[in-house]
Amino acid sequence: MSWRDVVLELELQSPCPLTGWSGSVTYRILMELIRQEAEPKGRIFAHPLYSGGRPVLSGVDGKAAVLEPKTRVQLRAVMTEQDLYYLLKAAPKAKPTSPPCPTTPTAIQFAPLEAKLGEGHGFALVELSFYPTAFMFHGRDVLYPSPQRLAYSLAKTYWELFGVNLKHLADRAPTALEVVGMRIKRVGVNIGDMRVVPAFMGKAKLAIYGNVEAWLSLLKLGEAVGVGISRAIGFGKYKIEQVQTNA
């Protein structure tokens, strides 16, 4: 199965009040558009809604936002090539999407999702900025950037997307990855219907030792698809701020 990294630009047709998590809105709009052609054929990994190039973090600790009419917003997601085909068919003829955020598609960009892992050993420091993220371990919330949970989440995603088992790499996480600094906070995120779930946000510095290029490839993948739970609605997204190799 082929996967695509997609950015869909839309224009708001009326004021868009956001009291809940904007990633839930992104997912709903994408599903509404795709279903105009067919039922989705695979998983969709959505991002939060973006406005002005920045994620809209509505629904975090009760935060609300109102986007004005004519505002251009971006929906970012990873989806199968088949679902992208349905989206491309639907977008030119789409009617404004349903409330609370009626939008009309204006442009779409897409690129193949990179599957190849780099090769090269050494040492690196990686600075990451996390948007709302949560891991689970045997039914328990893990609300910090745990290196082991990060590694197993990325390895599991690689298996789901490309059918390659990286458990051997993830099993090395205790000796390959370490958080050497972090500034995070725990938050509650309203994901809809007043259901508030715990998550964390903030910055972390990750030290990588060993097969650095493979880990960096996985972290780049994680930027697109996220890590942890509830990735369909935009949880688990982070940004790689800086990479220092052989630091």
TrEMBL record:
It comes from the Archaea. InterPro entries: CRISPR-assoc_Cas6_C. This is CRISPR-associated protein Cas6 C-terminal domain-containing protein. Residues 131-238 form the CRISPR-associated protein Cas6 C-terminal domain.
